[in-house]
Structures are given as structure tokens and as C-alpha cells.
Records
---
Amino acid sequence: MTTELQTFGFLVELNDETVKIYTIERGIIEMKNTGDLELGVWYDIWENELEPRTIYENKRCELWVENGEVFAQILAIGPNSFFLDKDISQKYKYAVWNPFLKFLDDGDNLFKDKIRGDDVVEIVVKYAPWKNGNFKIVQLIVEAPFEGSSYCRLPPWTLEQMARKLPEALMPKPNSLCVDQFRKINLTDIHVGVCIKAEALNPACPKDVKPSQGVRPTCSYLFTPTLGLVRWVITNLKPTGLTTSKPAEYNVKSDMMEVDKRTGKWYSFYMADADKNARMAKRKEKSEDKSTGADEKKVRALIRGSARNVKEVNNVHKATCVVGGEVEIEASFLFNANMFESEESSLLKDWNLRREGLSTDSHFWDTDLGRVEVYPQISETIIKHIESHRQKLEPQEAEKLEKEAIVVSVTAVVHRNFMKNFENYPKHGIFLAKKVDTICYLVGGRIIYQDQE
């Protein structure tokens, strides 16, 4: 027996030779009947063996057996067509969903005729395989209380609708500081951002200031979708060995978080007006503006502001990985072929020609990373894997899956020209997709491609 647990589920069908077990991750799994197995019992599934799952109770999926059939008492929800785009509403018309048992057969119209869209209802289902799932509704019990039913309120149609509206929702508003760098900084707002660079060029450090004056030419950078780049200046380091001929050396170990350990961590902070160095740069920028007739008050927030009261956040937004000093973060988006190329280009069979038609402006929006660039090499990888998968499907299955939403997960890294890109944000992103990790269907999670590294 292997030491790694594969999955678990409950037994729904058995005969003298085989058993069928329903699992959340993989649907129905068929295995050899090893004897002493019972319907409606939860089992751990190892390499090729089953073991009863000891001391396990799932009150959100209560099981029992009657006359050789497996029943379950669960919560379920149906779509509210008024809040969905027309095509999504049509796609999921009369659908009934439970997070554990997925799509439910409402062939007797019990749900359709009596339940309003978005209402969560307690029901009884029985194991009865059908074209879109494995369970059929046999009884409505009562409308479930709102409290405790939230896990049902992200069905596939809601996720698909949300994913479609994400670009519009996550696009920074014109009055956001990341877009309008000349707005007044709000000192009362607390932000959470990720440190994308531990030590990089500090644009608030005037070029003509000597190091012996205690000016720090580098700083750390935090990123949030609303503020964009925020300088995190090392202010509490004490110089050692300062002489008139030798620049100050800062004892980074006295900092609350060592500089080389900052990258990839999430921090809470507020943004405040400039430190001493930024004020010097601000005066310099003002004098340059005067010579060109520009408004002397217009100094970018990146120059005049910095992060204060920085504290590490334990409850991280996203897991990060630091490789070679560079932060890597997982990000995902809903696949849309038009995002990468025109319909005419997609009809080309010769990739030498088709490659020329791939968009150089492909991107998606992430809740934590803002705009993420997807360059042609990554676009080509995504398209090829999805097309290869579809070509391997049987005609009937291909037709069924043709309109199913597909999720693409990538590893995002900081763009090497992140400072330059920020000058034109949000027309250019701070992050880019480095490699494709996983491509799968939104409903059910069936894998289309998975990176093996």
C-alpha cells in the first residue's frame, strides 16, 4: 500500500466483481470488489485498495440506503436568470447544483416548478446516473436558512459570470492612485500588498546627491492593484563606518524584516507623504517643471509617497515562491480565444503563419496582481494544448464540451521593465505570465494540461 492518500468517497453501486465509488474530485471510480464492502459507506481510496474512513461524518451530505439504493440529504441551488448574461442563462437553464454531487437530475421537475433561482433548498437525491451527473432529485424538504448555506452560493453559472465580468470590475478606476499619480494620498486607508522587489533603484533619490549624505539609492517595492507601485524605504537602519571618504553602510539586520527576506511576502501598510530623500527629489522635479511651464504641484505619488507602519500579514492572499530572488505567484483566468488571436487567424493550419497573428497585447486581470501580460509564446502554448485536447475527444463528447468554460492557471512574475510599465499603467502590466501550469474545465475540474515540472 502506498503512503499517499489518493482520494475518498462513498460506495454507490456493487456486484460480485466490481464496486463503484462516487468521489468529489474524480466522479465515479470503478474498482475490484474485495469483499466486506457496503453501500452508502465512506471509503479512503489508496493505490488499488479501499479502507473504511473511520470517524467521518459529513452533515452536508447525509447518506443512507433503502432497498439497495443510495440516498443523500443535501442542499442545492438553481440559477437566477435575471442576473446572468443571456448565453450563460440559456446554458444553465433549469440546472440544479450541489458542490459535492455536482449537477442533479430534475427530470420530475420538482425543483423547476417550485423553487426560485438563487434559493438554497434542502433536498433528497438518490444515486441514478444520467447524462450530466450521477444523482436524481426525489424529494424537496424545506428552504435552507441563509446561515450555513454559503458554500452553495458559488455554482458554475455564478463563477462563469464573475469570470466574464472580472476585467471590467478589476480595471482601475480613473481616480485610482495607480492611474492618476497626481492625486492626493489618503493617509487613513490601510492596504495589503506583496513585496515584488527587495532592493531596486529608488527614483526618489536625486542623482546628484552624494552617498555620504545618508541618501539611500535603493528601496523595496510593494504592489497593490489600487496603488500600483509603492516605495518601502529603509528608514530605521543605522549607518556604520561613516567617513567623509566612505559611504555609509547600513546594518540591515537591525531592520524589523531583513531586506533579502522581504520578497514574496504580504504586508499591510498605509501610504504617507514623502521622506527626506523624496522631498529632495520632489523639489528637483518641481524646479524642472518650472522650466517647462508645468504645474509645480504635480509630483508623482511614487516619488512623494512611501509605505509606513509596514507589518507582515500572516493570512496571505496568495502563496508565493521566490526563485533566484524573483517572486513567482499563481494567477488564473477564463480562456477566451479572441483574447489571443482573431477568428481568421485561428483558421490557419500553418503555425509559421498563424504565429504572426498572435496578439502582442494579450492580458488578463487578477484580483491581487492587476494586469498580467500574456505574450505570444505563452498564448501559443495555451492554444496548442486546448486544440490538441479537443482533437482527441469523441465527436459526442467534443460537442458536449465545446461551450464549457476553461480555466488557465499560470505562474506570474514581475516584468523586467516594471518601472517603465508603471509609467503607463494600466496600459501595461507590472506582471507577466512566465509559464502555463494547468488548463482545466471550470465545471468538474477535468484536466486538459498540467505542467509536470
---
Amino acid sequence: MPKKRRRSYRRANIEVTEDTYLPGIIETLQDLVTREVHIGAQGDEELAMIAGIHEYGSIKAGIPARSFIGSGKKKAQTPIARVVKEGVVELVTGNLDADDLLRKIGDVGKERVLKNFDKLRTPPLSPIYAKRKGNKKILRDEEQLRESITAVIVPKRGGRR
């Protein structure tokens, strides 16, 4: 029998008083929820192909998937949640605007993806390729790919609100 999954919900610790301007808060939050942060590799066609092969692998070329964006995104969820929780309080109290919060989220996510990129070790390189390459670091020679990792704030696509 599968275990029940525990869920925890945290609320922002904000007190609403007579001085609180709710329409302003709603407008600020609306500005926040209509945009999102995309973290990924941005570059030319060749760089996109290399990023795709690293992320998803290539059966035809015998290259296993070495997901650095997807696994980095998973590792970034907790720190991003922390930034969002603190940021929403700052947003509602007027000490931060939506652009700054989205930028902070992007910076934390990008930092985690880059850290994951640097630490990626599985699956290992084939012995033949490792010998030709001269080291066993999987993505080390892909400095251009590493530098192409960006965080971009974009409008949300329709359907989700």
C-alpha cells in the first residue's frame, strides 16, 4: 500500500490593517502571476542542438542523456520556494516589486543549474571518448554551453492564471 504523501502549506505572515491598500496589493500580485521565469540554454542553432543532445541524449549517436537543466531545476525548487516566500512578503509590504522578485527567482534557478552543470558525473563517459578527451569531466569542454545558460522573464502563455 503506497504511503500517503504529506503536504505542507505555508502562508505569508502578513497582517492586513485599515492602512493596507488591498487594490494595490492585488495589482502587484497580478503583475507577478502574469509572468514567469524560463531557465535554459540560449544561443545559435548548433548550441541548441548540443544542449538538446546533452539534455535528452541521442540513441542514433549512442549518447546517453545527461540532463543538466531538468535535474538542476529539480534541485532549485527548495531554494526558489524560499525566495518566493520571503519575496511575496516584501512584495506585499511594498519593499520589492514583481520584476525584482522574478529576477531573484531567475538568479537562484540559474545558479543551481550552473552548479548542477559543473557537478554532473552520470552516466560516465565511454572509456574511448574519455581517453581521447583527456579527462573524465562530462561537460567540462562545453564552456560555451555553460555560458549560454540564462534566466529570462517572459509573459505566461494563456490557460494558466
---
Amino acid sequence: MRVPRARGAAQHARRWLVLSCAAIVAGALTPLTAQTPLTTDPIAAPLDEARALVGSSDPVAAQRLGEQRLTRARASGNATELMDALEYLAWVRIGRVEVAATHALLDEMRELARIESQPLWLARVLHAEGVLARRQGDTAGAIEHLEEALALRREYADQAGEIQTLNALSILRRRAGQLYLALDGHKRALELARVLDNRVEIAESLSKIGRIYVEMDDLEPALRYYQQALEVIPPEALVDRAEMLADIAGVQIAAAQLSPARQSVDEAIRLARLGSNPQTLATVYSRQARLLAAEQQPVAALQAIEQSIELGRDFDGVRSVLVRRLIRAGLLHDNGRDAEAASELAELLLEARRTEDLLSERQILELQGPVLLAVGEPAAAYAASQAFNAIDRQLNSSITARRMADMQLTLDRREIESQVALMARERDLQSLSLERQRLTLWLLLAAAGGLLLTALALAWRYRAERGMNAELQRRGEA
């Protein structure tokens, strides 16, 4: 059984929630006016605790702390403090996909940005709206919001914000099958993160690049990027390390490295439990389900994915739900429950097409063929197989075209480099020739000088001898 290897939208949304809250606390999401130091806010002290609770076993505590901070900000009359408090609470609610409550907060943030004439505040609103739309499965709306946010952040040189928006936008492009366009976006984000020395965003961008190589079935660089990301994450970041180990396990399973995958999954489960984060634990259990399926334990694998679905119920966005249900459908097929699997896949196919998730659609169609054949629907199975082949050809042709373009660029670059090297060699030869000519000239001048000195010495000696002879003659005559 081929099961999807996606982390799921819930993990992306959780990461965005944590990053955004961290940015608020650290002042990284800098508006055009100076921010009020958070140390003056009596509610600021518990913010690290609140950030840790977001998406954890006690998300209510995070929301309560966010509401306390918002109350304090409203009383202070400080626009910057109010904007930060609204954004914090908005991300808490995005993490739980509370759509109506989130939109109310975002509308207030948008109005505040308009009143204060702060374009970067508006960019923060647009970014949050894009992530919320993505979690709801509204791909077109998410892309529109994120592209507007990216344009504003570039216009006002907000590099920290640009990194986040580039990664969010590239996730959508990856799901739409635009793998190389997404890869370019993540690599640009990685470049900016290294310039800013932002270790969180460096790890985030590295993991996203690894994810794209997984989609290309290029597992060696995928594993390398994930391992680099794991090295960047500090040991105390238990949840982030658990998520990265889950991603590494996914690559190891795809590469049939089951023993290392078992070690990665076990360690990820341990860290997720230590971090008290059911959302991350849900992701790890989905990897465990894939591992158990690869180990020919379909019953245990089905139990693991159902546990994953239950744990992520309060946190999962549209795509996470789709991915986990797709894994479950494949395991239903492995357990001989083909009628249930066929019904599940039919629903998932409609959802994948509604959200314009081409990669998930391809995976669903790939699994749907054998399932429909097993339930006695060969015509429908053939149609699913044909649809899968069409999408696969589309993706492969775009990948092949890009690789050919990259190869041509490489050849052109090497040709230019060889021409530059040849020109440098010619310059060196010309320089050597000029140096030789200069040395020859100096030698000739030295020889001419020597001859001149010799001639002068001989002339002086001749005159001296003539004078001496003349003196001797005068003395002889005397």
C-alpha cells in the first residue's frame, strides 16, 4: 500500500501559531512605529507559558491568557500593544480552526491597521487570513491573501515576515503540484533566514525543502535536509524535534529503512509525550501507522491511524483530515474492508478536488484503482487509473522540464565558467609575455649600460696612458 507522506496542515498551522506568537513576544513582527516593550505589560510574564500551551493538552489556558492580555491592551490605549494582543489571540484560535471568532479578531486588526496607517500590520492580517483560508481548504483565497502579504512585506523590507509568508505560500504551491516553484520559494526563505540568523526559520525552511524532495521521490536529499533541520532545533524544543523525527521516519519508511524508522518513531512518540502535545502526537501516530503497515501489521496500523485521527480532531485543518483519512482508507483496504475503503476514497476525492490539492488527488486515485477492482467495479477502477496516470504525467512532465532547464543552465554556467577560465588564462599568458618582454628590455639595458661603462673605462684608461706617455716624453727631452 502506498500511503501519503504529508505532515498535514495541522502541523503547519501549529508551527505558524508558535512562530507568530514568538514573533509577537520578541518583537520580530516589527511595525513601522516602535513597539512598546513587553516588559511593561503585567500580562507579558506568562506569555511564554501561553505559547507553550497553544495546541497542547491545555489550549484553553492559552486562550484565557490571550484574552487577559487583550483586556489589558484595550485598557492601555496603546495601538501597538492592542495589535499584538489581537494577533496573539487570533493565532490561538487559528490553531483550533475557530473560523468565526478568528475572523472577528482579524477584522478588528485590519481596521486598526487602517486607522494607524500601518501597512506592515495589514501584512500580518493578510498572512493570518491566508493561513486560516488554507486550513479551511480555500486554496485560491489563501494564495490571494498570502501574495498580498508578501508584496507588502517586500515593499517595506520586512524580511522576517517575508520568510514566513514565502514558506506559507510555497506550501500551497507544492500541494498544487508546482513543486519547483515551491522549492524556489522555500530556498529563498532559507537564504533570508540565514541572513537574519533565525534558527527557527532555518529549520522550518530546511524541513519544507525536504518535503518537496519527498514528493519528487528523491529520498536521499530529502533525508539530508530533514537531518540538517533536526540539527538546528535545540534539544529543549521537544515538540519541534518530535515533528522533525516524524518527518525523518516518513522518508526512512519510503526508503524501506524500517529499523531506523522504528527508532525515529519511538523517539518522536517519547518527545511528543514529554511535550504534552496531542497535536504532534497525532502526527507521530500517523507515521507509526505507516511503519506498521510496512511491517505487515495492518490491524495494528489501523488502530494507530484511528488513534491519530481522534487525537487531532480538535486541531486538524482540512488537509490534515484528508491525509489521515487517506491513510485509514489504505489500511481498510489492507484489512480486507474494501467497501468501506471505496466509500471513504470517493468522499476524499471530492474534497481533494474542492481544495485543489493535486498531490492528494493523485494519491487517492492511485489507491482507488485497486480498491474499486476489489469491490467488483473494473470500469470505475480503470477510470481511476487513467485519471491517476494523467496527473502523474502532468507532474512528471513539469518535473522533467524543470530538470532539463536546470541541466541546460548548468551546462551554460559551465560553458561560461570555462570561457572565463580561458580568458583568465589568456590574460595570464599576456601578463607573462609582457613580463618576459620587460625582463628582456631590462637585460638589454643592463648590457648596454655595461658596454657603455666598459667603453668609458677604456677611454679613460687610454687618455691616462697618453697623458703618462706625454709626461715621460717631456721628462726625456728635459
---
Amino acid sequence: MLALRSAPARAAQAAAPAVRALSTSSIRCNDRHQTWDRPTVRAEAGDRRPQRPRAYNQQGAGASAQNARLSPSEVRDQRRERQAEFLATRQQRGPPHLLTLADYSAEEIADLVKSALAFKVVAKKWGNTEVPNSLQDRTVALMFSKRSTRTRVASETSVAMLGGHAMFLGSQDIQLGVNESLRDTATVVGSMVDGIMARVKGHDEVETLAKYSPVPIVNALSDLYHPTQILADLLTLVEMYHPDLSYLTEDIAGARNAYAVVRKRAQEIDIPALLNGKKFSYVGDTNNMSNEFIVSLPRLGMEVAIASPEGYNKIDPVVWKRVQDAGTEGKIQLTTKPEDALKDADLVVTDTWISMGQEEETAKRLEAFKGYQLTNALIERSGAKPDWKFMHCLPRHKDEVDDEVFYGPRSVVFPEAENRKWTILAVFNALMGRWQRAV
């Protein structure tokens, strides 16, 4: 998927461009700059088989006239041939990856969030058994170079809910690029599993894995980006700002087709319209979180303000280039004053001041960030909106935000944390559940 727009769909899909977001999704591969399409899951929750794209299910006017002269068996044979050609082309172009939301269009980001919402609603109302079993008989490797709580729990439970098996490989099991090259690791592990979620150190590591892996790669966190966390934040915002989501489950007679119905209804949600003009104010260190904020949120209509002290307010040139490519510089405010960033804020956000690997800088950083702790007094003095809400990706330290804000009625940190599960589940379903390995 592109940061600006996805490449045009292939000719086989041209018959139904209006239903593209509902039927297929084009993704751009970082290393090859290629696109491919993946089919959706069948409408009925009980049917786990891949569904052919809607372009093959719905005939255009010309095709209908031509098919009127063919027997039903001949029509079916033609469809099978087109589907086989479609799958062969898709497999030749390699597996889909999620390395950063900068690679995805605004429409594709929104589609993942709506998918996560549907999974959450169905599982909570009708139980996990009504969630499509798209990872049945599939294994997902969780390769983590760094420690993790929320990401690991969310990932393992997501794979299980989709009917698959999660294999955790920690730093004691696998040291990326140490005993074996990243290329070899991607090739070998990828030959034995159906997908890899990698929490790495340098972003170049996950890019190398994606370049050589024969299966989909999901970035669980790198020093440059953290895409699954921002998806969870977006789901939290949709739940917060949508006036009434109860319609998603109204008048559904039984659980059997619940997912299909809820998923279709969720597609009607206009996420950019919900978020348009909302100010997302981040006070803290510029890091992978702030990077992912600025490459994704402005494309969904939000304004992003970032306040960091001198020396800690630098945006990586690679990240800023993605912002420029998207043409969203005008929606981003960079300042060293928390009060400026917090003025008119709808969302007040912070993150750790001391990331993993920066422990030796603790004293220096705590000194530099004095005055950046989020308190009700600072937020109200700065002129935030009356209904502002607080977000944090966790884990939280008291230096960043005091208890009054963190545990207060405006905080949505715990629903935000839970939503990691539902958005990771949606990513696994979209990338690994719908993709088939080339044979």
C-alpha cells in the first residue's frame, strides 16, 4: 500500500472498482515496490475458505450479455481460469507486509480499523467461536528482540482466536543478525511458518526480513515505527467519537452470520469524517510513536502537534520525507513548548522519555524533560478543549504523567491497550489469513 495512493488494480478487477475497499486491498511492498491483491473471507462465518474477489462474482453488462450465450459450466470454467491467473500473479509478486502505516493509503488504514471493530463487536457479543477461523492450521512466528507484554499477549491471543498457532521466539531463542544473517533467518523461518511478527531494534532489520521472507512480515515495533499501536489508537478514537455503534448488532437474528453483517455495517463508518479537525497533541520524546503519528493521522484528517525539548525534537529525515510525499506538512506542528502543543487539544498524549537502550541517558533525559509532565493544571492552563481525553501506549512512568490524569475520568489508556488485540487480529487476518504461499 502506498502512502499516497495504491497502484491501479489489475485489469481483472476493473469491472468492479466501486467495491474495491470491500472486496480487495492493494498493498505496496517496501523493498520491491510492487502491488498485489488479496481476496476477502467468505461472507458466512462458518465458511473459512478464501472468497474470489467480487470482480469475479459480479458480471458487468457486457460480460452478462456474452455469458448469456454460454452454458453455466462454461461460465464457471472461465471464472476458475481468471481466478487461477489472478492467484498466480499475486503469488509471483510476493507476500504483503506491514512495516509502517506510511505504506498504506488512508482508505486501507481505515479498512483495518473497521475490520478490528467488527472482530471486537462480534467476539464480545457472540463469543470467539463466531470469529472467522482464517488462520486454521497456520503458524505465526513471533520474533522478539525486545521484551514485550501487551504486544506479545495481544499477538498470541489473536492468533489463537483465528484458529492458528503462535510460536514465540525471544532474544534467548533467536538473535537477529548475530549467529545468522537476517536474510538467512527470514528464509529459513519463513519456510516453516505462515507469517512472522517481528519486534526488532533497527528498522533496517525488519526491512531486511521483509525483503527476503517468503511469508508476510508485521512490524511489532522498530526504532523508527510502531504501526500496530497507532491502529489501536485509531480504533479507540472511533469508539470514542462515533455517536452510536449499537446499530452494528441490531436486528441480527443469530450468531451464524453475525461477523459478515457486522463487518458490512462497519464499512459504512467514515473514519476521516469522524476525525477531521481533531487535534492530537503529543508531549514527549520524538520516537517511533511520534513518527507513526505524523505519517498516518494527518492523512485521516487530524492535526498533530508535537512538543519536545531542544535536542529531542528532531524528526528523522526518512520519516519527514514520507510526510512531504503525502503533502500533510501543514497539519503538523512542531514546538518546544508544551503549552503551544496543548492549546485546543482534543487528545492529549505522551510516551516514555527513556526508550529501551537509552537507560544510560536517564539522568540527562529527566533533566531535559522537566516541565513536560502532563498534569491537569498544565493541560487546562494551556487551553485544551473542554472534553479532552488522555492516551498513552504504556508502560507509563510517573515522570511523564501524574496519577490524576492517568487514572482520571478523561483517561482511555486501558481501552486503548485492549484494542491492541483487536487491531493486531485484524492485521493477521488481512495479511496472513487471506494470503496463500506460492507453491
